[in-house]
Automatic annotation (TrEMBL):
This is Rab-GAP TBC domain-containing protein. GO terms for molecular function: GTPase activator activity; small GTPase binding. It comes from Littorina saxatilis. Pfam families: RabGAP-TBC (PF00566). Keywords: GTPase activation. Residues 349-358, 366-379 have a biased composition (Basic and acidic residues). One of its GO terms (cellular component) is plasma membrane. Residues 1-66, 349-379 are annotated as: Disordered.
Amino acid sequence: MADAQPEARYMDWEEGDGDPNGHTPGDSKNSANGFPIPPPTQTDRYGFLGGNQYTDPEEDKRTPPEVLRKRELKWLDMFENWEKWMSKRFKKVKDRCRKGIPPALRARAWQYLCGGKFQMEQNPGKYEEYLKHPGDLKYLDDIKKDLHRQFPNHEMFLSKGGHGQTDLFSVLKAYTIYNPQDGYCQAQAPIAAVLLMHMPAEQAFWCLVAICDKYITGYFSPGLEAIQLDGEVLFGLVKKTSPSIYKHLKKQCVEPIMYMTEWFMCIFTRNLSWGCVLRLWDVFLCEGVKVLFRTALLVMRTVLGAPEKMAECPSFYETVEKLRLRQMPPELLDEEYITREALKISVTDRDMEREHHKQITRRKAAKDSKGDASKKKKT
């Protein structure tokens, strides 16, 4: 597989490329999928006033109140004995995350699951200290340029200079001080924005730190080698689980980096309906990066798995457009479908570890071979 490189250090989502949440103007909810655009003054239960992330109240599937209350009580009990639950009854924690964390407790649960709560407790005053630091002007300029692109249809980020954009700037700036080696990458912004929709800035910052350090390690490092490696791992898993899709992509020279970069680096925040995003995050923060692989495999199977769907993609262009979810299949709007079907995909932790080792070995061999060829050329 050729080493496809992203065009720039920062993935270039420009205003003229379509919706800032990763869709083109032609696939607005008032067209292909038939979802009406609501009046601009009406927010859905997540805070969106319109656009592709908006959830129509008439189609919003809510958990019955009595079921929700029972789940809330169970989560409150887990919070009281968190270490015990995580060490001795983790399977039950995992099952409850897969059912969906109650919205009223989601912010608290995410902080417990990723460890952001504990990092914040161990570093009192550190966030304020980062904010007082002048920072790197290049990073700060890049952050400012991206603020208006993060969920512009959400009530929190509507206003330039509003509290949402101000907090987002602070969190992203603080991260560049915390981790100057990686600095700022555009894909960090939607992750931070999702966290800010649920919790105050300092809590969001420590959750961002935990996610970057423990879940998607190295994704924002210069050169983006970690995301390229995971793209190759994903392609290997596609070969194992969906050989017909693998052959189709191979034949059309569609490299993983062309479609999965945004999925993984932004944790699907730019690609799925909002209910699906939150359910995916519930499971992701509990079970780790393997959730991204399973979701990616499901997405690929949903958009390309049937012969008639492949027939709709006779060339490279149509295939890439399908994988970029320009037209969202109705199944991928259903959070229960995504949660249920992703778990059915026969990929184990061992499969992923084996594929990861295989791709590292392959990359090392290619690098050594290139080095040997270079030495021979010099002599």
